[in-house]
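Homework help board

Subject: predicted structure for assignment chain

Our instructor gave us this sequence and asked us to write out the predicted structure in token form, then describe one feature. I got the tokens but I'm not sure how to describe them. Can anyone check?
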Amino acid sequence: VQLVESGGGLVQTGGSLRLSCTASGIDFRNNPMSWVRQAPGKGLEWVSSIYGPQGLRAYAHSVEDRFTISRDNAKKVIYLDMNNLTPEDTARYYCATDQHGSQRGLGTQVTVSP
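My token output:
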């Protein structure tokens, strides 16, 4: 399994970013996919997941109504659209094959300035 994240960067409070994750080596259409993040000095935190061919979605309370997860099965890419970012969203974001992040990519850094 290979997961490659991109799209991170430095934004101001209230800004937006779109993260992408390209996956290979998995049954992409049927495998649940997740985003997890790790802030400086903290453990991994589940952010969002998308499940199965129907694309059912779930979000952590801290990001619901601001973040949107989606997938493109043809391209084998999942996205995380992040809006109204705050400094509390500053973290390294990982694409993962489960909610615990046990199998994840190298991540992409998101930094939100005050």
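Reply (TA_rk): Your tokens look well-formed. For the description, you could write something like this. The CA atoms of residues 9 and 87 lie 13 Å apart. That's the kind of observation they're looking for.
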